[in-house]
Amino acid sequence: MQKYTSVEDQVLYGLDKIDRDRKVEISLYDLVFVVKTIEELNRFFHQPMHYTSSEDVVEYLGTVNSGAFSLIHKMNYGMLHKYLPEDIKNQMGWETDELVNPNPPYYFKPKE
Questions:
Q1: Do 18 and 29 share a structural domain?
Q2: Based on the domain organization, do 32 and 55 belong to the same domain?
Q3: Which residue range forms the structural domain that includes residue 47?
């Protein structure tokens, strides 16, 4: 039987293998962009009145070209990946799956 995991388990999986003292340098612009994007996501999702219907969430998320998803996409692929050391990228699925949870998140579970 397939095991499905929580969102938290997906993110936290394998992080205990990373040295907490290891550092990378990030541009201030990129860091502020990331912080502001997370703040905006939090501003929307912290208040359930902002998303009383699935249409509210769909409108907010938008597409790869506009809305919150465009910011997430830019942050993830256009900014943060360039700061990851090659060995970490490789462990995140480029070559191995050491930092990738082998079980899919709960939202992959087939709907009945």
A1: no
A2: yes
A3: 25-82
| 65 touches 100 (CB < 8 A) | no
- Regarding whether 78 and 36 lie in a shared domain, the answer is yes
Residue 94 has pLDDT above 90, yes or no: no
Tokens for 47, please give them. 């208040």
Tokens of 80: 């943060």
For the chain, how many structural domains are there in total?
A: 2
Alpha helices of the chain — where are they, by DSSP H? 7-12, 28-45, 54-61, 68-73, 86-89
Residue 73 and residue 47 in one domain: yes
% residues pLDDT > 70 (the chain): 100
Residues 43 and 92 grouped into a single domain: no
Looking at residue 90, what is its pLDDT? 92
Instruction: Quick: pLDDT tens for 40-84.
Output: 999 999 999 999 999 999 999 999 999 999 999 999 999 999 999
